[in-house]
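Whether sequence alone determines local backbone shape is best considered at the level of individual chains. For completeness, the protein is quoted in full, as a sequence line and a line of structure tokens:
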Amino acid sequence: MANVSAREYIKYFLFYLDREYEDLWSNFLFYMERHHYQVRLLKKNIWDSSVNIYFDEHITQIQLLYQQIDDTLFKWIQYLLVMTDGGWSRQKAEETMQEFEIIPMLHSTSKQLSILRQNLFHKLSRVNLYDKMNALLD
């Protein structure tokens, strides 16, 4: 990636970052895709109105985290695209990735999502829905 355009750099970041930060990216994508789907599936199939608030709170919390990620990535990508007008360089792009704290943000968000997931599953197990939850997710 010695001499790349902003478009190529962004494509690299969004689609190939997992090769450099495989665990980080796969953990983050797990929550972005699979876990969000699992929570919606559980909410749809567990007909216990006493736990609906758990699902609603959880979905709201993870959507807030996703929005923070989206906002930061949008600003960073926008910055990279503006940078192309004033002279593009990979070094500047990587410096902006550090300035926007992209990698630490993904680490932090993945950790927060993991904690939120554990908390939700713990709440469901406390109201004796663990077996039903496991049956739905297997």
Remarks:
- Helices lie at 6-20, 22-45, 52-83, 90-99, 102-126, 130-137.
- The radius of gyration is 19 Å.
- The longest helix spans residues 52-83.
